[in-house]
Write a structure and sequence with these properties.
Helices cover 40% and strands 17% of the residues. It has 20 helices and 20 strands. Strands 1, 2, 3, 5, 9, 10 and 11 form a seven-stranded mixed sheet that branches.
Length: 559
């Protein structure tokens, strides 16, 4: 292997895209660059009151070009030394496209139409459509939901497509096909102009679009057309074959080579979702749950296919051979709100700063802004410090973490968060402690479901911002799970995972496990359960489940 081979990993997150350039033989990060989506930052095309979250493809395209160019400029790496680029994205984040594969929002007349844009993973406008898919599937044989945990989510491919088609006649008339973000970016980079030739990821197809080898691809047209006539004929416009992320999608097109200052010899890898590539960047091992902890969580477990063959785990986000590592079964779960739950509480506490101090005529604007920014950024660290001092008892305040619905186990985006046991002595640190604890209980519910379904969980691998920045929450999670948690060294495991797949797609490594071994940065922290807390948390977890069941039953009565 040549020491001067470089690869680029591109990680599309909820708020921004990050590119890293990495030495292919040892994983050393040479440079990175971050680009915040300007339209998203300004709140365009979103309506949180109805859980509508849309992103314009122009944010993605601008971010792709600017982050890679900045990365290359910082690194000083010669353009002919870059061998490959691979990307990961959030998901399920699909969009309506025409026959050429162009997103409708990049065409005249649709530029400002949210329904012609990418429907972000956290968009829950398709709750009714997901419910109709779940009811419909019960009447059909075979069970087309068997490989996605038996429950279809409003966050996923078909529910979002049906919602958009029902919501917007103009989009309905011009939508030729429906494409995941992780499939569209490689198609864009390779100069694709025929949607039929797009290489679709097994990761997105299997976990979100009901694709399975056992079905010979997607469920047949009659499954969808009998659900709603608007879906008639769509399977023919989609795909049969899928690809693992260690495969090339093609070569960098002449246009994009010129835009980026690279060669047309650069290989572009097949895309995948962020947590799946992040699990590889975080050096996942069989039967260890890789937990990417950010605004939400995405939990990934891999196991040799032959060892879990025939086991179907109820209520998770799918089990797909090759969706993480080729030859391994990839199993996905997650929590709809994790860091978002903490941010929600921070925003409540900072309301006076945002709405009173900012409007005060007695405080100079620049001073007010500085005070506001410094105070808001200090809220969660200060709350964590004080919450850690609160003695653990059975009767502490208790919360349920469904502030953005429940992803797993058993997806239900209609559910709401809750808190109980409050009194006049309940202060901000106590409330924060209850919210943090609830997110850890949500993590335990996922681990318990795997175990109940016969899947071993040996321990956790913590990735992402919360894992790196919050010892308080990580220690609490270790105590609640009664299991060790290893924290990966890399600050950017998703982008690093993408670079590992890029190196494999380029043929630098024969398989992604080899890239992971050679390029992985290892672990820098490990948390172990404090024995004195384990029993108390176990009893509080039972109270959490009872409160959750109460909320669930109340929700069903109101539906």
């Amino acid at each position: 292997m040549k020491n001067d081979a470089f690869v680029i990993g591109v990680d599309y997150g909820t708020d921004s895209v990050r590119s890293v350039i990495v030495v292919a033989n040892n994983g050393t990060e040479i440079a990175s660059a971050l680009f915040y989506y300007p339209r998203w930052r300004d709140g365009l095309y979103c309506d949180p009151s109805i859980n509508q979250f849309r992103q314009h493809p122009a944010d993605y395209v601008e971010g792709l070009e600017q982050s890679i160019k900045e990365c290359l400029n910082k690194s000083g790496v010669a353009s002919n030394k870059v061998r490959a680029i691979s990307i990961d994205t959030t998901g399920s984040t699909p969009i309506a496209v025409d026959k050429s594969g162009t997103p409708l929002s990049m065409l005249p007349g649709f530029e400002k139409n949210p329904n012609a844009m990418f429907v972000l993973w956290k968009d829950h406008t398709a709750v009714k459509e997901a419910a109709s898919i779940n009811e419909h599937a019960k009447k059909i044989t075979p069970n087309y939901l068997q490989f996605v945990g038996g429950v279809y989510s409003s966050e996923w491919f078909w529910a979002k497509l049906l919602h958009i088609l029902k919501e917007d006649k103009a989009v309905q008339q011009h939508c030729y096909s429906w494409v995941e973000h992780c499939d569209w970016i490689p198609f864009l980079l390779t100069g694709g102009n025929d949607i039929a030739k797009m290489k679709r990821s097994v990761c997105s197809a299997g976990h979100k679009a009901l694709w399975a080898e056992e079905f010979g691809g997607l469920p047949p047209d009659h499954f969808f057309s009998s659900l709603d006539p608007l879906l008639k004929g769509f399977t023919e416009k989609l795909f049969i074959k899928t690809y693992t992320a260690d495969q090339p999608a093609g070569y960098l097109s002449k246009e994009w080579a010129q835009r980026l200052g690279l060669s047309t010899d650069v290989i572009v890898g097949v895309g995948a979702f962020d947590a799946h590539m992040g699990a590889v960047g975080g050096q996942i091992e069989p039967y260890y749950l890789s937990k990417v902890m950010g605004t939400s969580t995405c939990d990934i477990l891999v196991a040799p296919v032959e060892e879990v063959k025939g086991k179907l785990v109820k209520g998770i986000c799918g089990q797909v051979p090759g969706s993480v590592i080729p030859g391994m079964m990839g199993m996905e779960a997650g929590q709809s709100a994790f860091g978002d739950a903490y941010a929600w509480f921070r925003n409540i506490l900072s309301w006076p700063l945002q709405n009173i101090l900012s409007n005060s005529k007695s405080v100079e604007a620049t001073i007010a802004q500085k005070i506001k920014e410094e105070t808001i950024s200090a809220i969660i660290p200060a709350l964590s410090k004080e919450a850690a001092k609160i003695p653990l008892t059975l009767d502490n305040e208790l919360a349920v973490d469904w502030f953005n619905g429940r992803r797993t186990p058993d997806a239900n985006q209609l559910l709401k968060g809750a808190a109980t046991g409050l009194n006049l002595g309940t202060d901000a640190p106590r409330m924060f402690r209850a919210i943090a604890e609830s997110t850890c209980f949500g993590a335990k519910a996922i681990v318990d479901r795997f175990k109940e379904e016969g899947i071993t969980v040996k321990g956790l691998i913590g990735l992402g911002g919360v894992a790196k920045k919050s010892p308080f929450i990580m220690q609490m999670m270790s105590d609640i799970l009664n299991a060790p948690i290893r924290i990966h060294k890399s600050e950017q495991t998703c982008a690093m995972g993408a670079s590992m797949f890029a190196a494999t797609a380029a043929g630098i490594y024969e398989k992604v496990e080899d890239a992971m071994h050679a390029m992985g940065q290892g672990f820098d922290t490990e948390y172990f359960p404090a024995k004195q807390n384990v029993d108390v948390y176990a009893k509080r977890f039972e109270k959490y489940k009872r409160l959750g069941n109460f909320i669930l039953n109340a929700n069903e009565e109101n539906v």
